[in-house]
């Protein structure tokens, strides 16, 4: 994981929940952590990290992830043993 990806991880876990984290940055972070990312139907994205599975929706048309999705990503990462 490089310095930029570490900053994205820090942003995901910041309080209050941020609204300026772009989805592409989150996907790059997940790949760096070894996650398997596959496309689902529509905007769905299936993610498997350390045996933990989740389905997220890519934000559209904006690039930034909303607060609810970022909180879900935080829980997913914690369940996968990240942080």
CATH architecture term? 2-Layer Sandwich
Distance between the termini: 13 Å
Task: Give the biggest beta sheet.
Answer: 3 strands, antiparallel
CATH topology: Metal Transport, Frataxin, Chain A
Indicate the radius of gyration in whole angstroms. 12 Å
Counted beta strands? 3
Poorly predicted residue ranges: none
Shape: globular
Number of domains: 1
**What order do the SSEs take from the amino end to the carboxyl end, as H and E?**
HHEEEH
At the first level of CATH, the class is Alpha Beta
| Mean pLDDT across all amino acids | 95
How much helicity do the residues have?
25-40%
Count of helix runs = 3
Across the major sheet, the strand order is 1-2-3
- Fraction in beta strands: 15-25%
> Structural class of the secondary elements?
alpha+beta
Structure overview:
The protein has 83 residues and is α+β, with helices and mostly antiparallel strands. The chain has one domain: Metal Transport, Frataxin, Chain A. The protein is 40% helix and 19% strand. It is built from three helices and three strands; from the N terminus they run ααβββα. The chain has a three-stranded antiparallel β-sheet, covered by helices on one side. Strand 2 and strand 3 form a beta hairpin. It starts with a helix and ends with a helix.
């Amino acid at each position: 994981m490089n310095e930029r990806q570490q900053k994205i991880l820090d942003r995901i876990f910041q309080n209050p929940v941020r609204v300026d984290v772009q989805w592409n940055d989150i996907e790059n972070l997940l790949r760096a952590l070894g996650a398997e990312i596959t496309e689902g139907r529509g905007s769905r994205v299936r993610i498997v990290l350390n045996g933990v599975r989740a389905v997220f929706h890519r934000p559209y048309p904006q690039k930034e992830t909303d607060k609810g999705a970022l909180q879900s990503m935080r829980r997913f990462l914690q369940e996968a043993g990240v942080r």
